[in-house]
Amino acid sequence: MIDIDGLRVRFGANEVVHGISLAVPRGGSFGLVGESGSGKSTILRAYSGLNPEWTGAMRLDGAELGRRRDRAFFRRVQMVFQDPYGSLHPRQTVDRALNEPLIVHGLEDRDARIARALSDVALPRNVRFRYPHQLSGGQRQRVAIARALMAEPDVLLLDEPTSALDVSVQAEVLNLLRDLQERRGLTYLLVSHNLAVVAHLCSVIGVMQGGDLVETLSAADLRAGRVRHPHTAELRALTVELEEDTAQPAAAG
After folding, report:
1. Residue 251: pLDDT above 70?
2. What is the pLDDT of residues 36-57, one digit of tens each?
3. In this model, does residue 231 exceed pLDDT 80?
4. Which of 55, 123, 137, 159 could form a Cys-Cys staple with 118, CB 3.0–4.6 A?
5. Span 135-141, mean pLDDT?
6. Does any domain span residue 214?
7. Which residues contact 37 (CB under 8 A, 6 or more apart)?
């Protein structure tokens, strides 16, 4: 479904992505993980059409992608951003946010589609006419996911979709995304700095460092510690240390 071959991205004279290649089958999930500045979000933005300054080849379901994306592309590919508050218009209700993609793509039965989307992301009906500031962070991200689903896409591009949420809410949103993928047959390309988040949702993981894809491995190999590149080992060790610290009981005071 997603095919990226020899992708290079420049900002002026600075090349920030150095000829990376990856493929995601229909209904599959691929996670890009790395530190800030490693180039992972730049790849997502290039594929989504937000950054036209790239060379190489990118395809959707076998069809070559050019510099400009047409409406059919955006019907099939939708993006969920990191900050659910920033990605929702503060003066527009949830109803307006969910109606907009239906209007853009000329889709009918809007009330039924909105009701189904809210149900799919486990939000009550009364959320429909609220404003973003009246919702919790987790609810706002569920609205953002529901908006991405309105056009019934094949692919979701997920840019750090849980990093702005509390840890307890992160797990809920990740479980929701996994459930939606199974029910709708969605293909995911996920970007995160958190190995645990990526391993929870993705079967295949690519590790980025300094604009290079330094290792690709399965989530099972990652969990078992079967890693080859030193940077992957560093990220895995850090994740394990953070999880152990979180699991420690607080000291008596």
Report:
1. no
2. 889 999 999 999 999 888 999 9
3. yes
4. 123
5. 89
6. yes
7. none
Average pLDDT over residues 51-65: 94
Label the pairing between strands 77-80 and 187-192: unpaired
The token duo for 249 is 């009981």
77-80, strands of its sheet edge to edge: 77-80, 155-159, 187-192, 29-33, 204-209, 212-218
Q: What confidence score (pLDDT) does residue 62 get?
A: 94
Query: How buried is 252 (Cβ within 10 angstroms: 0-12 exposed, 13-18 middle, 19+ buried)?
Result: exposed
Q: The whole model's pTM is what?
A: 0.89
Q: At what angle do helices 94-104 and 137-149 cross, to 10 degrees?
A: 20
For 86, phi and psi rounded to 5 degrees?
Answer: -70, -25
Q: Is residue 120 part of a domain?
A: no
pLDDT higher than 60, residue 211: yes
- 58 domain-assigned: yes
Total tally of structural domains belonging to the chain: 1
CA distances from 78 to 101, 136, 157 (A): 10, 23, 6
In sequence order, the 6+-apart residues with CB closer than 8 A to the CB of 12 are none
Mean pLDDT of the chain, nearest integer: 88
What whole-number distance in Å separates Cα of residue 69 and Cα of residue 66?
7
Specify the CATH number for the domain of residue 19: 3.40.50.300
Residues 6+ away with beta carbon under 8 Å from 31 = 190, 191, 192, 197, 198, 199, 201, 202, 204, 205, 206
The answer to the question of residue 94 being in a domain is: no
How far is the CA of 28 from the CAs of 25, 33, 36, 92, 115, in angstroms? 5, 17, 25, 34, 27
Q: What percent of the chain has pLDDT over 70?
A: 94
